[in-house]
Amino acid sequence: MNEETRDAPIDEGNRLQAFFYAMQECLRSALGSIRSHRMRSFLTMLGVIIGVASVICIVSLLQGLTRSVMNEFQGFGGNALQIVPETSREDRMIGKWNALKAADLDLVKERVAGVSNVTPMAFPALPGGVRYGVNSTVAQLIATTSWYQLANQSYPRIGRFITTSDNDSRRRVVVLGDKARTDLKLPEDPLGTFIQVGGEWFKIVGVMEARGDMFGQSLDNYLVIPFETGRALAGMDKPLNMVILLTVDNIDAVNDVTSRITALMRREHKIGPKDQDDFKVQTSQSITETIQRVSSTITVVISAVVGISLLVGGVGIMNIMLVSVTERTREIGIAKALGAPRNFILMQFLIEAMLLAVIGGIIGIGLGWLLGVLAAKMIPHFPPPAVPWWAIVGATGFSALVGMLFGILPARRAANLAPIDALRHE
Amino acid sequence: MIELRGIGKTYRMGDTELNALVDVDLDIARNEYVALIGPSGSGKSTMMNVLGCLDLPSTGTYKLDGETVAGLSEDQLARVRNRKIGFIFQSYYLMPRTTIADNVAQPLIYRGLAPAVRRERANAALARVGLEARTLHKPNELSGGQRQRVAIARALVGRPEVLLADEPTGNLDSKTAREIMGVFGDLHREGMTIIIVTHDAAIAAWCQRVVRLHDGRIVEDRQQASHTHAESA
Hints:
The structure holds two protein chains of two kinds. Chain A is α+β, with helices and mostly antiparallel strands. Chain A has helices spanning 15-36, 38-76, 89-93, 102-111, 148-151, 164-168, 178-183, 227-234, 254-268, 284-327, 329-337, 342-378, 389-415, 419-424; strands spanning 80-85, 115-122, 130-132, 135-137, 140-144, 156-159, 173-176, 194-197, 200-208, 213-214, 217-218, 222-226, 242-248, 279-283.
């Protein structure tokens, strides 16, 4: 024969390339086989599709929710601190509630370095609600000072906020949240109008920027009055359920400031070294961390539960691959007669199983996202879902793993067929 | 080029042993054109499997192109089949879902050749059997004779040492059978070593040398002075 054109044996040099061509061929044949049994392939994938779609749907809803909560707190500012009273469970059971004192406010203002916008914030309960003419509504009443807008990063849309002089003179002025304004059927620009808050007349001096909804609840249903006015209306002798809001100038100093405040307040409140704090310094970070922890715990639990359904999908793939190996015994025999090595056949069926699972996974991601969007649309005020990149990578990777795992048995069966038996198979 | 010494093949069927081949010695030189004949059950198929490295003999030694086949691993046997042997089967054994060009190129996949090289050689092999215009058809769009030509092209594409044909005309009418035997005759004249397994004396008449098997033994081995030539096909 023509000796000069005979192929050189595969040497070390082009082994990698030969491997690449072999993989290319396996992929092509796997795609061909999936395409030629469209319906069967789709049904086989269904288990994986449903599994992945449910994971993605739930994770995307949960992530969307978490993200919207986080955004809410981001507005609050990473450098914002909140000092709130804290009561131990034991005390709460005997009806004893801790509170912050007016002196705490001065303490933080005068003796803690590197903080700004220190403001008290109280929620006085005024009977009678809010009224404008015949319209009335129930809204959150916030008594605070001008620093609130800086500490809380929210500003008036029209008019002005509470000023220091409003506070000092205990003026009866009010700044409205936008929802409170519309509920009272006040015009876009209600400046100068008088409304009744807890039976007292207040003059509207400003309307705040709208902030939107969270969990179906408006974030704009509130009224702001001067802190001292609130105290006076609630009765000067009554304890005011007060929290302190402040911002830290340098965000890196948040922890230092927190411990400084804790130390000062412990001394002021005369708390013994072994006793618990009767207050808590919260950072927006600590709040978001808590939310994230809860969200990721739920995500892990749900993903694990739904991951089991992916395994069921894997069993479906194995089943069909076994059928496919039996059906294609003759083909395998021909390939072996023509010189296909064992590993080539093994790879061919393994890739087909993986491809089935991965295609199922990708369809599942799309379907899950779609379901998430639909579900979010159907629940009123639910935030739009977010599919995080790790969920996509994870779902695809896990599908591939499932396909490979459940492809091993059928692929081994195919690769181990004896060429003559496979060829004679009818 | 083919050297069989004391080849025996025993199949175990439950408690009974079946001797498919008994002490077979056979030498086939390069460019011989051999018919392996015998009634069914004579050991022809077993002989074909052993010669084609699809199965290993129970006893004896087999040297193909100077290489001892006994004791090779499954993958080494696959390599020998891929490089030294071109198979042609009675029912063609083509891949139904792929084009005939891809069918013909299939053995080259296992050599790690690039797709472009595979395509080029497959087209050349198809041209050699007169099917260059049909490269993109599927096997079921072709007649039986054309399918067997595709199978021959596939056997040739790897430039093997020997063509092994198992009843190559068994599914064909006599006219088409003559055409296919014409193709074999041409290949023989070009220097190919060809072994045809058949039970059909008319087919054997085309070959130079006839080896008759009976009950697993060679009972006749004769040269034919005047074997049939292709009638200007």
